[in-house]
Amino acid sequence: MRTFLESLGPLSFAGFILLQVLQVVAAPVPGEVTGFLGGFIYGPALGVFLSTIGLTLGSFIAFWLSKVFGRPFVEKFVRKKTMAKYDYLLHHKGAFLVFLLFLIPGTPKDILCYILGLGHLTTKEFLLISTIGRFGGTLLLTLGGSYIRQHQYYRFSILLAVAIVIIFISMVYKDKLERLFRKWHVTSRRETGRKLRRDERHKAGKK
Question: What average pLDDT does range 68-97 have in this prediction?
Answer without folding.
Answer: 79
